[in-house]
Amino acid sequence: MKSSVVTSSLFAIACICSGSASAFDQYAITDLGSIVNDPASANDYSYPYDINDRGDVVGFSKGADGLDHAFVRLRGQNLTDLGEGRATSINNHRHFVGRSNGSNYVMWKLGPLGFGVTDLGVQNAGVYGWGAQQSIEINEMDEVAGASSDPVFFFWKNGILTDLGSGDGNFCNIEGNIGLNNRGDVSFSVGGYYQSTATSQVGFPDSNPASWYTYLYSINDAGEMVGLAKTGYGGSGAYYSAATGFKNLPALATGPRALSDINTAGIAVGGGNYPVYSGNDPTLQPVKAYVYAPAEETYAYLDTLVPEFQTNPPSKWNLKVATASNDAGQIVGVGINPQGKTHAFLLTPIGQP
Questions:
Q1: Whole-number Å distance between alpha carbons of 131 and 91
Q2: Which of 123, 187, 195, 287 is deepest in the core (most CB within 10 A)?
């Protein structure tokens, strides 16, 4: 992505060492299931990373072999098993990226004969750091940004790879989550640094005064960015725009914690201690998924926005993390379903087909 070679984009680098539910939609919830789909199996597990405006979802699910398998779930269909790996970002052309069972990142494309796979020729980052599995993104122009081992951060377009470097050069201190918008802007975090490529140079504040440092996970087409304001082992959701500077949500006993994604309308979602939920981390047990409207500085827990949970309590989930939202207002995330299994969920505004 950045570093020593910069293509047509420039980059800027900066160091970043109670809400009302009335502003939000009401939702219907869909359990996206898993590849195994057997409540008696320890491998009945799924996790979504992204949703496009068509309602297609990508992520990973445990296979019968106990390994992570990438999946795509086309709107209204069941999960399609893509083999070992994780799919982390999908655009509206049904092109999506992630890692497979090889050493390199790949791009899947839906064609008349199914899903074709292209090796992007850049090594995947594997698993490191907090929540760093979501380390590659694709936009509507099939531009790709990601975190790797070498180059550490990269920008890929039409087979041309641009090295965006590693900021402070300390690979061990990298938070590998990355954001990419349709202008080609990239947000990512390197041990308290964030960097952005843009068609023109962008200035950011030197620091987020309310935190030790800030990790950035998502950037929308307006340049709004969200992530985690790190203040210790936990932290709070962080929001940035050029107009407002940084806003940090309060760190409450039940969240909010990290903001995972922000859509074009400026509505952000999050939850969990970090964007990747770990079911065996006791510090995450009280944390809940939520939605945040920066303009009104208000948030709501998602379980309060599902009428079914109030009229039929046995149907209630424990919604842990909202991972992504699309411009149609749909939200995906992960939680514990009424059968006690960790599954991906889809929230669709009531009245939407």
A1: 22
A2: 187
